[in-house]
Amino acid sequence: MPCRAVIHAVGPRWLFGLWAERQDNLLAQAYLRALTLARDNGFSSIAFPCISTGHYFFPHERAAGTALRTIITFLTHIAPDMDVYCFCFSRRDALIYRRILEEHHCPFLTDDES
């Protein structure tokens, strides 16, 4: 995928429910910092994988909810013209993201439409 730059966003390691709210906030901050850097550098789009759900063991449903709430809030209040893409490498994650986006009445692209 061609791009002008790469912004590394490192999310928190899930501590099996310990300090769950803090972990949610750290994950939201990872997305928010990347979104802000993209906006501040004049990027019109940014793409994210499902941060922290692999080797950092963040629960998929919880991570998707945190990611999408952060992204939707950012787009609504700060950068409505930015395009944000969420890449889901598993069918499980794609279904979770699709369901949450549908609940928020947000548009989405499937792998057939991208």
UniProtKB/TrEMBL annotation:
It holds the Pfam family Macro. SUPFAM superfamilies: Macro domain-like. It comes from the Bacteria. This is Macro domain-containing protein. Residues 1-105 form the Macro domain. PANTHER family: GANGLIOSIDE INDUCED DIFFERENTIATION ASSOCIATED PROTEIN 2-RELATED (PTHR11106), MACRO DOMAIN-CONTAINING PROTEIN (PTHR11106:SF27). The lineage of its organism: Bacteria, Pseudomonadati, Pseudomonadota, Gammaproteobacteria, Enterobacterales.
